[in-house]
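Dear support,

I submitted the protein below through the web form. The confirmation email said the job was done, but the results page showed an empty box. After a refresh the structure appeared. I'm attaching both so you can tell me whether what I see now is the final result or a partial one.
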Amino acid sequence: MRSSVIISMSCGELPVSAEGIFRSMGYKSDPPEHIAESLEGLLKEVGRRVVPQAGYVLYEDPPVLEQAGVSFGGQDFRTGKVIGKYLEGVGKIAVFAVTAGEAMQELIREASESGDVFNQFMLDAVGSEIAECAADKIEALIRAEAQGDGMGITNRFSPGYCGWHVREQKKLFALLPDQFCGITLSESSLMYPLKSVSGIIGMGPQVVRREYNCELCEDSKCLRRKGPREP
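What the results page shows now:
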């Protein structure tokens, strides 16, 4: 059995952080004032044009858990041992997808076509921040639904991270309605619009959300990695 939720939102509803954007751009301290002013102007334009979308489908039948994978909704996922450990005790799984949307993609394309490389770079970071904030929002909605049923939630996990191969993105999207939130997949499992995030969140009465254990993960470039990263 499954149920689904889809929401649209304005960028103003998301806690988009200039600090997070600058961190994505590689700044380790406050950027020059003219860069901060440029971002402020870009965010106003983004706010006028971009409408992020987010949603999830909740699979309520108990999943079959293994040490390095999980099966539900008629799909078998080889998530790897790291994610498998976090899924212990899960009784339901929410499959989610969020996107900054086609308008965000268009803004990045316009900057590229005009030859404005720096604005393109900055908009790319803005799009990533919006997608992550939208993922935080959908996670909060899933948490609220879980708490209403007396359950907790896991971290969110996405194909391409923590040992879960990105090719299983196709299996994940097989569990979502066609073009869910306006997102499509390429043959190589790349999501379009590019500034999109998908994954799973588990629910269970004994489940407690824990910090990502980066010592168990070999992905040195993961956005959620704590502490210094390898070059």
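Response: this is the final, complete result; the empty box was a page-load delay. The chain has six helices and ten strands.
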